[in-house]
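WARN no homologs supplied; continuing
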Amino acid sequence: MLATDMISLYQAFAAARAPVWLMGGWGVDALLGRETRPHHDMDVLVDVSNLERLRRCLVDLGFVLSYVWDEEVKWVLDDRWVSPLEQPTAFVCRHPDGREVDVHVVRECPDGTIEMLWNVPYAFTAAGLSATGTIEGHEVRCLSRLMQEQAHTGYELPAHHLQDLQLLHGHV
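OK structure emitted
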């Protein structure tokens, strides 16, 4: 996925009132302020209250549900949604041109805590969701360095994820 594709999607989500935080490779690049490697997808985090709007935006842009992270997923329903159907909290949508958006869902609670709505061995914090970065001169919301590090735990890291962590630590 090219940076222009990622920015276009990020802006489309915001316009649909479904703002996201960047995670993964694009999130690392946003923190560093530069594209460090090619990306096959866009990893995003969305609040459950905005999930339905995000899913509709993806469909309107030609994306289809292609994968549900069975080992991580929970199914949720939010009373602010129009639809009475439960939705997955860890899934991938794919466009016919090959672009992918990997979505994970949280709930920002009134007391400031962040509830993880998928099965992971770590927790996010409000401070961890307060970071911003830049991609191609566009400011974006992203996970903080600490949250990026935590999101890279609990699984065997492929080489490009190891490189992302090294870049965050200034070792590359």
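The beta strands are 20-23, 41-47, 64-68, 75-76, 87-88, 90-94, 100-108, 114-116, 131-135, 138-142.
OK
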